[in-house]
Specification:
The structure is a single chain. The protein has about 80 residues and is α+β, with helices and mostly antiparallel strands. Strands 1-2-3 form a three-stranded antiparallel sheet, with no helix packed on it. The radius of gyration is 17 Å and the shape is elongated. It starts with 13 loop residues before the first helix and ends with a helix.
Length: about 80
Amino acid sequence: ILEDVGEELDPSLEPVLQKQIYKQGGRSLIRIGDSDVDYNDAFRFYMTTKMTNPHYLPEVCIKVTIINFTVTLEGLEDQLL
């Protein structure tokens, strides 16, 4: 979990977001910085933000799934009607 993410993401997250995984000697690896790290297919990466209405660049939106869990009075009223 990466918490309190802003609208601009650190470039070092690119290999994780794009799942730049490769096989070497029967192992799944991902390069982070200058290190090769073992990758597990069950790995899940979550990012959260406290911003109420973040605007991410299209380059970010195509790499991630954005879910808005914001609860507003108007949204609740729409569900009741």
